[in-house]
Amino acid sequence: MEYNQLENNQEVAKRPTFLLVLCILTFVNTGFTILSGLSGVFSGPPSAQDIKESNVQMAESISQLEKVNLDYWVDVIKRIQLMTEAIYANFIAYNVVSIVVAMVGVAAAALMLKGKKIGFHVYIGYSFLYVLQGYLFISAAVIPSFIVIINLLIASLFVLLYSRNLSWMNK
User: Which domain covers residue 124, as residue numbers?
Assistant: First the structure.
């Protein structure tokens, strides 16, 4: 057995299982994002009929929430409808940006899987891009704060979890 193969086998054996699990989760998430983005790019924006059906469903949801006096959620649904309209207006660009951001996430996870600390730093950049990408197409006043908070919490959690493996990353 060559020295390189022995070294690679030892590196794989020493790789923390937790890092492998985190990378798999990242690959699954970014893979779905890339596939749905490519699907959106190739299929094009939704038809006028699809948009009309979406608006009817939103109106029904708003009506039901108003009946039970859930004003906060009425506001959230209205904001989500505005977000959806902004995404439809920039459909291809939104999907392309999503694909590019997801590819940064894939690259970051692959680098960390190889034991390179630069991957962790790239992942932090990816996390910021992931949270901020919607602001390229959607007004900040429209995006519900709980969506931003959830995205920030998830991104921060993954950065924290990946940081637990920094001692193994030495390149």
Answer: 16-45+92-163
Q: How far is CA 28 from CA 24, 73, 75, 126, 170, in A?
A: 6, 30, 32, 15, 25
Tens of pLDDT along 119-147? 999 999 999 999 999 999 999 999 998 89
Confirm whether 3 is domain-assigned.
Answer: no
Q: How many domains does the chain have?
A: 1
114 domain residue, yes or no: yes
CA distance 78 to 120: 37
- Domain membership flag for residue 100: yes
* pLDDT tens figures, 21-54: 999 999 999 999 999 999 999 998 989 998 899 8
Cα 116 to Cα 107, 121, 168: the distances in Å are 11, 10, 9
Q: Residue 57: inside a domain, yes or no?
A: no
DSSP at 16: -
0.70 surpassed by pTM: yes
Q: pLDDT tens, 105-116?
A: 999 999 999 999
Q: Which run of H or E residues covers position 74? A: helix 71-89
State the Rg of the chain over Cα: 20
